[in-house]
Amino acid sequence: MLDLVDLIARWIVxxxxxxxxxxxxxxxxxxxxxxxxxxxEAIPMALKLVPYLVAMMVAIGLLKDSxxxxxxxxxxxxxxxxxxxxxxxxxxxxxxxxxxxxxxxxTTEILHGFGPDSFLGRLASTMQGSTETTLFVLTVxxxxxGINKTRHALSVGLAGDLTGxxxxxxxxxxxxx
Length: 177
Known about the structure:
The chain has about 180 residues and is an all-alpha fold. It has helices at about 1-25, 30-65, 70-80, 90-95, 100-115, 120-130, 135-145, 150-175.
């Protein structure tokens, strides 16, 4: 069974690309010119993203370097301990909605400090896959295409992140205890 999964994993992306190319040829679409046109449209979009990315990176740097993350972790530690949630996971729970790169750095620290097969390592890995970079998406992608009314998207995205966090804790506690 593992060999079948490995075979599928190796061929899923090349197979998908092959299907797209065959479908394009069937529909008589010039694949190369369509690709070049898409790349041409991507350059102005990438330039629009730069200010949002810089603002997000500065905000993340200030949050981490100011010690605010450590202060928040210490403040919530009693509540988390009462709920049997390891307080070491809070920085990841706070950074994940903000930035994928920062949350990956926090996850890496957890994996190096506690090990990938530890409860915290498994919890951090599960949280990475169960939550989204909500504020990053709203800031960068919504900002790049000019969406200004993000109130409902923000509340729904953060509710989804909280649900992913709590579900990760519950499932990892149940499975890995």
